[in-house]
Amino acid sequence: MKRFKLVLAVMLCVLSCFFFLAGCGSDQGNGKDSGEDTEAGGVKYREELDVIIDNTKIAILDPHSPAAGTSSATWAFQMIYDTLVADLGDGQFGPDLATRWETEDWQHFTFHLRDDVYFHNGEKLTAADVVYTVERAKENPGSAGHDKLSIVESVQAVDEHTVEMTLQSVNVEFLYYISDSRASILNQKAIEADPEKGTWIGTGAWTVSDFASNEYVVLEANENYWGEIPKTKKMTLKYVAEESTRLMQLENGEAQVCFSINANDYDYVESQTDKFVTFPFTSNNNSYIAFNMNDPICGDLNFRKAVASAIDREEMVASAFNGYGEVNTLGTFWGFRTEFKNENIPIIPKDLEKAKEYLAQSNYNGETVEIVSAIPDLIKTAQIVQAQLAEIGINTTIKETDPPGISAYATYADNKAQMIVYVGGISLNAGSTKAYFYPYGSYNRASYKNDEVIALYDLAVSQADPAEREATYHKIQEIVAEDLPYINLMNTTFLVCCAKGVEGLKLSNLAYHDLTYMYMIEE
Amino acid sequence: MLRYVIRRLLWLIPVLLCVSLLIYVLMDLAPGTVIDSMITEQMTPEDIEKLRQEYDLDKPVIYRYVKYMWGFFHGDLGKSQVTGLSVWDSFISRFPATLKLSLVSVVFGAVLAIPIGIFAAQRAGTIWDNLTTGFTLIGTSMPSFWLGLLLLILFAYKIQLFPAGGYQGPSSYVLPAITSGLMMTAITARQTRSSMLEVLRADYLRTARAKGVPERLVIRRHALKNAWIPILTTIGMGLSRFLAGSAVIETVFSWPGIGRLTVEAVSQRDVTLACGCVIMTSILYVIILLIVDLLYAFVDPRIRGKYASGSRKRKVTA
Amino acid sequence: MGSEINDRTVQDNKELVLEVEDLIVHYVLQEETVEAVNGVSFSLERGKTIGLVGETGAGKTTTALAIMNLVPDPPGVIKNGTITVCGHKMLDLSANQLEKIRGKDVSMIFQDPMTSLNPVLTVGDQIAESVMLHENLSYSKAFKRAQEMLEMVGIPGTRATEYPHQFSGGMKQRVGIAIALACNPKLLLADEPTTALDVTIQAQVLDMIDDLKRELGTALVMITHDLGIVAKTCDLVAVMYAGRIVEYGTLEDVFDRTMHPYTEGLFNSLPDISNRKSQLQPIPGLMPDPTNLPRGCAFAPRCRYATAACREEQPSRREVSETHTVYCSAYDDPNFQIERTRGRGGNG
Ligand SMILES: Nc1ncnc2c1ncn2[C@@H]1O[C@H](COP(=O)(O)OP(=O)(O)OP(=O)(O)O)[C@@H](O)[C@H]1O
Ligand SMILES: [Mg+2]
What we know:
Strand content of chain A: 15-25%
Number of domains of chain C: 2
CATH class of the largest domain in chain C: Alpha Beta
CATH topology of the largest domain in chain C: Rossmann fold
Largest interface: A-B, 79 and 73 residues
Structural class of chain A: alpha+beta
Order of helices and strands of chain C: HEEEHEEHEHHHHEHEHEEHHHEEH
Distance between the termini of chain A: 54 Å
CATH superfamily of the largest domain in chain C: P-loop containing nucleotide triphosphate hydrolases
Number of helices of chain C: 13
Number of helices of chain A: 16
Strand content of chain C: 15-25%
CATH topology of the largest domain in chain A: D-Maltodextrin-Binding Protein, domain 2
Strand order of the largest sheet of chain C: 6-7-8-3-9-10-12-11
Largest sheet of chain A: 11 strands, mixed
CATH superfamily of the largest domain in chain A: Periplasmic binding protein-like II
Radius of gyration of chain A: 26 Å
Shape of chain C: globular
Largest sheet of chain C: 8 strands, mixed
Structural class of chain C: alpha/beta
Radius of gyration of chain C: 21 Å
Oligomer: heterotrimer
Bound molecules: adenosine-5'-triphosphate, magnesium ion
Number of domains of chain A: 2
Number of strands of chain A: 21
Helix content of chain A: 25-40%
């Protein structure tokens, strides 16, 4: 009797839970069991794809927000919006929203827009939207969109489909800037009607159907897109905070693509060739050692050379990254895919004898040097650096913090660090390296300042001739190789893990991947 | 009664001042500021300085705090420093996910816990009682992070019965609700057991039995009703804790609720959003405990009498 | 099931409402065993009243609980005995059957009115509950009956919707009586129904019980240590000491022809109103520890007539008359008389 009562109670409990849940309905509206297929010419495409994004998350769907600087935000932006011009790689640009453009002096530009483009809210794209977009970006300092568009001095609509822009000064990299998804064209009317959700409206191949900050964005294929319509009908880009469940979701079909599998699982995923396909890409972001140039010990070039001669990059790749990385072989600090890299500068080889010599000449006298680091992989790297430096007699301690902690620790003006082991973004465009070498540069964790370098950077943006620009950037690289404020270590290789059948993914070394035409063929 | 409610609600003010000040100061002590994650390689020093000024980072923390609270007492929870979106809207858009999971967890926890607690109390000292005590001990001491992962590995990975995360159909509630509900079950079952044990010794149960009331009604109508108050308190505490959003459970199960919102806000040094979340959850906490307090009156007429003092129609016996 | 037993047994024992035979109840605690009731036998006819008297701890309440088969278990264990209430063997019935008898055939007024009522139910509901259970009445009818019961015990029926904490102690006791009487039980166990009450109310309550008894023909077990109440209400008296009945007989037998030294002691410890100057003579010493009863007569250590034999052996049973029984070895000596009878000049 009593046991029966208990069983009844448990059953009631389960039942009531289910009734309650049945009333809740589906909120995100996707799941592994609802992914049906579209059939076209005998090939079946999966209708829905769930994508687990990387750790950068998507905080906001607004390219002009300071919070939109993350790599995964650019994936959504590329799907939702279009840019004026398309980056074809190798310094080449093709039409996108602009069918053609003209410039004579790299300061005055004229863009001719397509006239068959409609925003997701049904509004037709006009020159006014382009003007609005540029002006809005300029008003939002701190945003990636601002970075791209703030060099525009003035912008006006010549007619419905023609826009003229004048830059503050000559800039040969302007097309590169406006091909970035953060310089996408937004709709004036939508944003003025709803400042928060109006930015979800673009002209792109995908429309936003749901979004939760830092959690997920649900996209649906735009059937009225002016360009090629995606084969996939619905795509969810979601952030999965708990690393260990990402592989689970991939395995049980809750996700078809994962950009952030734990590196320890790479070997396993690669071995399961019947279930998964993997796409590796090596990030252009350098992991590096930065020296505080104002520190009495680290400010000494001999000390920095001693460190450079003592480290072994191969070991870092092998033990901190399970072999998933490439040793950076540039003798200077530059992105290995960044334009105008100078490959003639020799890298300082590992040589412990040399290292000890340098150390003897330096003003290091057995003090304990603090290494600041954040993020597990880099902390592991820092530990390897620590062990390698110990071999030549440099004592170090490691201070662990989180990414905002790194920024707070080592700013150009107020540098509390001695050595920093961290990773930094470098885009394909040479000018972006300024962030590391310019006074007050946003990534200048070495507090590095060299007037000659400043002058060369200022010169480079005015040099329309690529050969001249190359010479300038090569010179910069030579100088910083000598000054050695940074030692570049390696570039991480990431494995994008997909369910078998996933194709159409365009990977980028900057992690600005293009998922617009990603699809999955079902068997 | 109304006076009591108002007095309790007035207590919210010092509570809110304390928690908000605490969160402001703590987040100020943490290294880094909200603008650190906004800095890109193309920003000029002037841009960065402008950003700092925009967020009042050039002023002392107390200035930012007073400014924020000034807005708050004018009914404005502020805007997220990171996304620029209204904190209130962010909170409201995430709250349903947390609310639903909380309710499911509480219902699951309570519905399971009360029979277990009664079962154990009726068999106090027997092997069954020891077994349930063991269960509650495990339930209360097991870290929910660990339990969540364990359930995930078993039911999402090995058996693939439930999804490994996300906030979707009914099946996605099962694992997170079990994980958070189990702790709740354990605590509530223990509370039910001890308060039932106390009640089971009461003389009025003997009176009820002497009237020929069947044992099941003795427990349900006579004993449980008297044992409710501590049980209600436990459930209320559990609910308000869940409503604050369990960061751990929401992280493990990718649940887009208040807990995740707060964690992200803290990790991005988004002080206004973090503070807004904490303020809102504190308000909820106080209100739920107040509701539980008022529920006491429904359960126990003696307490009802206290609230109703003065307005009671008291008849004089002949 | 219950009715089957009912039909069969009621004919057999038409007159006897209660029969207790050789009842032994122990409370088995972790370190010790309380020998609360050690072989009690008595019986009661329809409409009659028996008084169970004795000092505190004598086992009166335990006996009553055993009659209801409500001895708390654990720790209580009914070691031996048969109890027949209206023909039902209470100790052999299933829980289900017991529930049908309790409150209907036999009910009990509990000793402590303060804790015997459920604080979270209205008194009306508490009275109506047993009516609903046993007479299959709807709630509203049962509630109406509850109000009538309240009126009957002298509480306005409108107060049925109030809770016990809104009542005074005496009113609570009356509510307890109303609960016990709600279904016109054939047997009522009243466990010190008046100790919680002041004297005027005491008299009212006793009168009330008496009236009800007469009206409804209820047999009553009146548990008390107040001999005055016994004299007022009882037909039979059983004097209990340390879990045993030491003297049993009609009211006259026990009061006028007292045999047992303990009963005598009880009378001597009463103040004598007619002779205010006379000294109270309380029984010296204390009742023995029920966890450690002496081998012989339990009263022997306090008995002024006790002999060595008394301390060694259990007292012998002596039927003084058809109605009067005493358990005392002193009467093995044919010339023995207690002082009380001696003073009145002879026995019988
Ligand atoms: N639940 C119990 N557990 C252990 N011992 C008990 C319990 N109930 C009663 N006893 C013991 O049993 C003995 C008889 O108790 P009982 O209540 O029957 O006495 P009583 O004659 O009713 O006394 P009083 O006149 O004080 O009510 C006492 O020694 C008491 O301590
Ligand atoms: Mg008693």
